[in-house]
Amino acid sequence: MPVYVVIGTTGEYSDHREWPVKAYYSKTLAEQHVVNAGRRANELFVQYGRYGDVPKGENEYDSKMESAYTGQRYYIWEVELDATP
Asked: Could you list the residue range(s) of the whole structural domain that residue 7 is in?
C-alpha cells in the first residue's frame, strides 16, 4: 500500500535541507497539502519581508518550515507502507 509523504526543502548546494512534513494515504490530500504549505509560506514571506525572518511554527501546514534565501519547495515522496507487525 503506498503512502504519500509531503517533503519540505530549502537552500541549495551545501546548505540544501529537506524534512518530512506530513504523510497521507491519499495522493490527492498530499498534493493539496503541497499547495497549501507553499501558498502559506509565500504569504509569510510577504508578511515578514525576508525569508529568514519567518519564525518557526508560523506555517500551520508545516510547523518545521525552515527558511533560506531560496524560499521553500514542497513535493511528495511515494513510499510503500509495510504493515507487517
From this structure: 2-80
